[in-house]
Amino acid sequence: MVNTPGPQGLRPPLCPETIALMSTSQHLTVVAPASGKSAEGGAKPPKQPKTVFWDRRELDAILNVYGRRVAAGDWRDYAMSGLKDCAVFSVYRRASEMPLYRIEKRPKLRNRQGAYAVIAASGMILKRGHELKQVLKVLEPKQLSLVTEG
């Protein structure tokens, strides 16, 4: 698109989303495709999709468990992803493998099963719930104690 000269100098090109221009004797009306409202009537621009991500409290809980498992030699790497509908924290034994576990946050499920889930490499959901710390307990190693007869 090229800027076109007008009465006040150069005008910017029209928005590519513009569908139609309706001209009357008094004024020009631009009709947008999404809402059908005129630009003068207060049509809002389309919103950018927000990405879901972990907040500081959630990351602290996840990295606390992750740090203990790294110190034990079980895990070595991680990856974080913020997507349109969920946030994912993936845990790896080695960087070149598939993730051992995925910790997911899906805000749309918070009123149903719970927003948080731990998913194994096979795709099986190990635990799902409303509280992240409770969900992360499935990743803690079991503490075994020796019972002696005596």
Count helical runs.
2
Beta strand count: 9
Terminal CA distance reads 89 Å
Rg of Cα set? 27 Å
Number of domains: 2
> Percentage of helical residues?
10-25%
What is the H/E string?
EEEEHEEEEEH
Helix and strand composition category: alpha+beta
Largest sheet: 5 strands, antiparallel
Share of β-strand residues: 25-35%
Low-confidence residue ranges: 11-25
Widest sheet: strand ordering: 5-6-7-8-9
User: What's the average pLDDT?
Assistant: 77
What overall geometry do the principal axes of the alpha carbons give? elongated
List the helices and strands and how they pair.
Blueprint: E1 4-6, E2 9-11, E3 20-23, E4 28-31, H1 56-71, E5 77-82, E6 87-92, E7 101-105, E8 116-120, E9 125-129, H2 132-136
Antiparallel strand pairs: 1-2, 3-4, 5-6, 6-7, 7-8, 8-9
Features:
5-stranded antiparallel sheet; 9 strands; 150 residues; elongated; two-stranded antiparallel ribbon; 2 domains; alpha+beta; 2 helices; 14% helix; single chain
Characterize the structure shown:
By secondary structure, the chain is α+β, with helices and mostly antiparallel strands. The protein folds into two domains: 1-46, no CATH class; 56-139, no CATH class. It is 14% helix and 27% strand. It has two helices and nine strands. It has helices spanning 56-71, 132-136, and strands at 4-6, 9-11, 20-23, 28-31, 77-82, 87-92, 101-105, 116-120, 125-129. The strands form three sheets. A five-stranded antiparallel sheet has the order 5-6-7-8-9. β5 (77-82) and β6 (87-92) form a beta hairpin. The protein is elongated and about 80 Å long. The chain starts with a strand and ends in a 14-residue tail after the last helix. Residues 11-25 have low confidence and may be disordered.
